[in-house]
Amino acid sequence: MEFLGFSVKDLNGSLAKWAAAGIEPLAGGSAKRVYLMSPDKIKVRITEDSSLGVPIAADTIKMVVPNVAEAQAWYAKYFGAELIKRGDETVAHIPGSNILFEQAKGPVAPSKGRALDRIGLEVVGLEAFSKKLEDAGIHFDSPYRKANGMNAAFAVFQDPFGTLIEMSEGLSAVK
Question: Both 15 and 100 in a single domain?
Fold first, then answer.
């Protein structure tokens, strides 16, 4: 994954708070979009969206893949991703997230074991959905399982492009 993206209601206000904490944007930003670097070298894109109802919201995950069209089709088939044009980008919209695919210029390393190891998706009806994926030939690193001591379930697999995906159900309700 190349970056994580967040939208903020007030970019200048957010930048001022981050500057006070010693976090400065990378060179090359604009009045509406900047990039930050996390301590473990994950690039974070921050885009202003003054229509947000909250101060900050998850926005985009940028994934570098061997074939953009294949990745878009795979996420559409298995997760119902809808391709949406946003300015100069086409994202695969999955409720709660957008994935921006970029064509790799060389070999793509799997995400497992890296600073940004996996993406997480909350899935309603996870047990049945996991079974559907298994029936389609997808191998799970960690098959569907209920978590001990909490009302949540998980399943983990790798997409065909090397990204580890952790699916959960009920995790958003756990406090």
Answer: yes
